[in-house]
Design a protein that fits this description.
374 residues; D-Amino Acid Oxidase, Chain A, domain 2; alpha+beta; globular; 27% helix; FAD/NAD(P)-binding domain; 28% strand; 12-stranded mixed β-sheet; 2 domains
C-alpha cells in the first residue's frame, strides 16, 4: 500500500474510467497525480456498463473524438499493458421497417457529406449473412465494420494499475467534503486527510454536477440508472454487437454463450445513497425488442439484472473543458456512451492541463454551453 500523499501537480476527483484515463495520461507527461474516489475504482457506471467500443450512431460532433479513441483501442496493451478483453467485430443497428431504413440512408448521406465513411446501410440479404438468427421481418441495418466491445471493470482497473505503476496515487473510500482555493492552490478536505494541487479535474461521473458547484460552476446534470440483463448460456448465434433503429437496444453474446442486453433504458438512481431501483417494465420493453430481432431468445432465462449510476446532460453530450475558476477542468456527463471515448478523453484532459490546444475540437462539449448568457 502506498504511503499517503497530500500534494501533486493535479488532483482527479473520481475513479471511473475517465478519471483513471486522465491520471494515466498525466503521469505519462511526467506530472504527479492524486486520484480521490469516494467508493472504489470502477464502482459505478464505468465498471457495470455494456462495454461497447463503437462509432456507430454517435452524434456528429462526437465522432472525431470517437474515431481517435477507436484508433487507441486497436492497441490497448501499448497504453495500459492489458487487452481489456477487447474484441473487435462489427456493430449493426437493425431496421425493422421502411421508415427506419430510410432514416439510416439519410444518416449515412449526411455522414458522407461531413467526410465520415465508416457507416453504411446494408440490405436484408447482407444482414442475413452477417446475422443469420435475426427475424425474417428485419429489412437491413446500419453497419460499421471494426466496432466491438471490451470488459468495462477490467478496463477501468487496467487504467488504474498502469497509472499507479507510473506513479499516480489513488485514495479510495475518500469522499470530498470541502474545496477551497488559497493563493494558487486548490485545497481538498476529505475524511482521509487534506490534499492540495494547482489543478483539479472533475471526473466525478453522476456526481460531477455537485462537484462543479463546489468550485463555482453550475452545470446541469441528472443521475439515471442504465439497466442491463444477462441470460443463460445459449448456442452461439450472434457474433456482431447488435442494436436497433427506432428502439433502445444493446445486445451481445459472449464466448460462453450468455447474452448481455441493455441499451439505455433506465431505472431510478439515488446517487446520495449509492443505490438504484430497477424498472421492470422498462427491462421488459428492451427484452421484447431483443426477442423481436432474435426469436431464438424468446424463451431464454434471464439470470440477473442490474444498473449503474450515470450522469446525463440535457443534450446528452459530455462536458469536457475548463471551468470558470483557474485550474478547474471538467470531464463528466457522458450520458451512458462514454466508455469507448475514455482513452482519447484522458489525452485531451492532459493537453488542457499542460495549457496546450487539443488536436480535437471541444466546442460542443464546453462546460459553459448551458449558461443563460450563451
Amino acid at each position: 500500500m502506498m504511503a499517503l500523499r497530500n500534494t501533486a501537480d493535479a488532483i482527479v476527483i473520481g475513479g471511473g474510467i475517465h478519471g483513471c484515463s486522465a491520471a494515466l495520461h498525466l503521469v505519462l507527461r511526467k506530472l504527479s497525480v492524486i486520484v480521490l474516489e469516494k467508493d472504489y475504482v470502477g464502482c459505478h457506471a464505468s465498471g457495470v456498463n455494456a462495454g461497447g467500443v463503437r462509432r456507430l450512431g454517435r452524434d456528429f460532433t462526437e465522432l472525431p473524438l470517437a474515431q481517435a479513441a477507436w484508433e487507441m483501442w486497436q492497441d490497448m496493451p501499448a497504453l495500459v499493458d492489458d487487452d481489456c478483453g477487447y474484441r473487435q467485430s462489427r456493430y449493426l443497428k437493425v431496421a425493422r421497417n421502411d421508415v427506419q431504413l430510410e432514416a439510416a440512408r439519410a444518416r449515412v448521406a449526411e455522414l458522407n457529406r461531413r467526410g465520415f465513411t465508416h457507416e453504411e446501410v446494408i440490405d436484408r440479404h447482407i444482414l442475413r449473412r452477417l446475422l443469420p438468427a435475426c427475424g425474417s421481418h428485419c429489412l437491413g441495418a446500419l453497419h460499421v465494420e471494426g466496432d466491438g466491445a471490451a470488459l468495462p471493470f477490467r478496463t477501468t482497473q487496467a487504467f488504474k494499475r498502469r497509472a499507479e505503476v507510473l506513479g499516480a496515487y489513488f485514495s479510495e473510500q475518500t469522499p470530498v467534503n470541502r474545496v477551497t482555493r488559497r493563493k494558487s492552490l486548490w485545497h481538498v478536505t476529505t475524511p482521509c486527510g487534506n490534499f492540495e494541487a494547482p489543478v483539479l479535474i472533475n471526473a466525478a461521473g453522476a456526481w460531477g454536477g455537485n462537484f462543479a458547484k463546489k468550485v463555482g460552476d453550475d452545470i446541469p446534470l441528472e443521475a439515471h440508472a442504465p439497466m442491463l440483463v444477462s441470460t443463460q448460456s445459449l448456442p452461439a448465434f450472434a457474433e456482431p454487437i447488435v442494436g436497433a433503429l427506432g428502439a433502445a437496444l444493446s445486445f451481445k453474446q459472449f464466448p460462453n454463450g450468455t447474452v448481455l442486453i441493455g441499451g439505455g433504458v433506465c431505472g431510478e438512481a439515488f446517487p446520495s445513497e449509492n443505490r438504484t431501483r430497477l424498472d421492470i417494465a422498462g427491462l421488459e420493453r428492451v427484452l421484447n425488442t431483443a426477442r423481436d430481432i432474435f426469436p431464438i431468445i424468446s424463451k431464454a432465462q434471464v439470470n440477473r439484472a442490474w444498473a449503474g449510476i450515470e450522469g446525463y446532460t440535457p443534450d446528452q453530450l459530455p462536458v469536457i473543458g475548463r471551468g470558470g475558476a483557474p485550474g478547474i477542468l471538467h470531464a463528466f456527463g457522458f450520458s451512458a456512451h462514454g466508455f469507448q471515448l475514455a482513452p482519447a478523453v484522458g489525452g485531451v484532459v492532459a493537453a488542457l492541463v499542460m495549457d496546450e490546444t487539443p488536436n480535437l475540437s471541444l466546442h460542443s462539449f464546453s462546460p459553459d454551453r448551458f449558461s443563460s448568457s450563451k
